[in-house]
Amino acid sequence: MILELDSVAKTYRTKGRGDVEALRPVQLPIPEGSFVSLVGPSGCGKTTLLNIVAGLLPPTAGRVLFEGQPLAGPSRDMGIMFQRAVLLPWRTVEKNVMLPAEVFGQEPSSMQERVAETLEMVGLTDFSNALPQHLSGGMQQRVALARVLAYRPKVLLMDEPFGALDEFTREAMNVELLRLTRPAGITVVFVTHNISEAVFLSHKVVVMSPRPGRVTGVIDVPFDDPREIDVMRQQTFTELVFEVRELLNKEESRSGVPAEVEGA
Ligand SMILES: Nc1ncnc2c1ncn2[C@@H]1O[C@H](COP(=O)(O)OP(=O)(O)O)[C@@H](O)[C@H]1O
Ligand SMILES: [Mg+2]
Known about the structure:
Elements (H helix, E strand, L loop, with lengths): L2 E11 L5 E12 L4 E5 L6 H8 L7 E6 L2 E2 L7 E4 L11 H11 L8 H10 L15 H13 L5 E5 L7 H15 L5 E6 L2 H7 L2 E6 L4 E7 L14 H21 L9
Parallel strand pairs: 3-8, 3-9, 6-7, 7-8
Antiparallel strand pairs: 1-2, 1-4, 4-5, 9-10
Helix pairs in contact: 2-4, 3-4, 6-7
The structure holds adenosine-5'-diphosphate (ADP) and magnesium ion.
């Protein structure tokens, strides 16, 4: 297991709102090279869990093991990507991808070749010198993806990275994400509230529910790799999507509060 969540739990202590139990203890082994999605409606603790795995947020209880060692903070072996690309608007595409090297105190020129190679991989070579404002949302996310991949992470953590993109662009990005991570053996933990996206991409779909946030089921996805978009046409695909949705609905009716689930 490259990552192991060992009874990881989180309660936020707030002024005024009291304690918020964001996450009940989660037990989750993540095999090296696997793709794991966390799905569930807003407020079920997806971002909380991802930030704990990233070492950005300390859990209230439990621990995260990364390569067998307790995680104490952010690791350079993990890359993280958010819903918005968070690019510096005054820097070119290439200079944005170069940024982490500078932050790590690496000589930027030592990264030049690898940055060029990564931009080529994500199809942005012709835009190396463009400014982010001249790129579409999908292309900006490609830059953000290049910016993590250039540093060869072992683990890629993604928090609804394609949530702001239109359906067509999102599908294209999904196919591309598989092409860029699977052969490289990168482990991916991917947050989404889109059920079919989760089933298409993942080896394992972790279903979560809110109030309080917790894991309510883990569904294994048996499709072979490499996957192309046409796996969505298989009956097994439809059945798995349905299974995830049922698990979400069951929890929703139990809590009596409607959950916001899109894209299923
Ligand atoms: N910094 C914080 N302080 C207090 N409560 C928080 C904080 N961050 C998140 N929460 C609460 O924790 C719960 C889980 O939030 P979050 O992890 O953002 O869920 P998701 O990403 O699934 O939408 C929600 O009830 C949210 O309001
Ligand atoms: Mg979130």
